[in-house]
């Protein structure tokens, strides 16, 4: 079977490359005469034609991946459609502040992390692709563990994720990509339900250093609703150490109900993107100033925390 074209990261800015990468089932597809009364093709015909075009590209190798393994064609036509019902129907996510995310050029999205299983990162990806005017892809920075898991590791690469290290983050942002980081890491998604919406430590501010060196804005992102999908009431540390994972969660339904306990609760979500914190005026030299990096990290964390409190006060119900 023919292999995909691998293009350099900077090569994605080439217009012809963008056209190939944007080929997806949501775009209008030319069909033979004989559509609906308005002169266009019925919706089911468009979907069938889109699926056939996708299969043809996969068989012939007429799709692009970048040097990180990101496959926009597969992401737009397979991964996002699978996640979209969760976003629209199950969690009924409301997105705010999308005007704060630039339509082009690099930027760093920094969000709170929660939910026992990191569903929040995938839902943020759907939000930016489906509700931003530029339909932007989010290049997520993921923990080492993600890339050791069978099935999940290759899918993470193909969906645009890469290792959470400053070098990769800087290369992506300098190439004009939108990069997402969840600096609480496993401390955030694995915290007990009693500590919900209380931000954990944001590490040593590596994400701030990367943004300063790249000269891109930092956009705080606050997510309400993810804390309630798997209320963490306990942990099994001995088993977690034996399996080499950060924790084995105990929720009101797992492991009591077995696989059924893995079904998330249908909480109502809000994702809010805050005003950008500009870094270009500070300059890349600021990345070598520990106090500046610490203060900027603390500023981002405080903005997210205060926004979470505001959203929680305005929320009428966890599920409605």
Could you explain the architecture of this structure?
The structure is a single chain. By secondary structure, this protein is α/β, with parallel strands linked by helices. The protein folds into two domains: 5-68, no CATH class; 76-229 and 264-314, Glycerol-3-phosphate (1)-acyltransferase (3-Layer(aba) Sandwich), CATH 3.40.1130. 37% of the residues lie in helices and 12% in strands. It contains ten helices and eleven strands. It has helices spanning 15-21, 43-60, 72-90, 119-131, 152-158, 166-174, 186-189, 206-214, 237-243, 290-314; strands at 5-7, 64-66, 94-96, 107-111, 138-142, 162-163, 178-181, 218-224, 234-235, 249-250, 270-273. The strands form three sheets. It has a seven-stranded mixed β-sheet with strand order 3-11-8-4-7-5-6, sandwiched between helices. Strands 1-2 form a two-stranded parallel sheet. Strands 9-10 form a two-stranded antiparallel ribbon. Helix 5 links the parallel strand 5 (138-142) and strand 6. It is globular, with a radius of gyration of 21 Å. The model is unreliable at 15-38 (pLDDT under 50).
